Amino acid sequence: MHAALAASAAAPLPAAVDWAEMVSHRDALVRFAQRRLLDPVLAEDVVHDVFEAVISGRAAFAGRSALRSWLTAILKHKI
To answer: pTM for the whole thing?
Structure first.
């Protein structure tokens, strides 16, 4: 049991996502969603849902990929 606690303590914490950096990818995410959904209003809504998931903590950036790749993966899941 102590080994599990030590392993969890040694695990890296999720990286905090900078709001300005995240929003800088908004246009690319909306374009991606528009190509997939063929509906600009729905695309905006889905991108908003992605940002809401990140801000609320339902999605945590671990830093193992580029931020845009991670956001796009969340978007693909929501579409």
So the answer is: 0.74
CB 43 within 8 A of CB 30: yes
Q: Fill in the amino acid letter for 9.
A: A
Kindly report, residue by residue over 32-48, the tens digit of the pLDDT: 999 999 999 999 999 99
Q: How far is CA 53 from CA 11, 31, 56, 78, in A?
A: 23, 19, 5, 10
For the chain, give the number of residues.
79
- Please report how many Cα atoms fall inside a 13 Å half-sphere around the Cα of residue 3, on the Cβ side: 0
| Amino acid of residue 78 | K
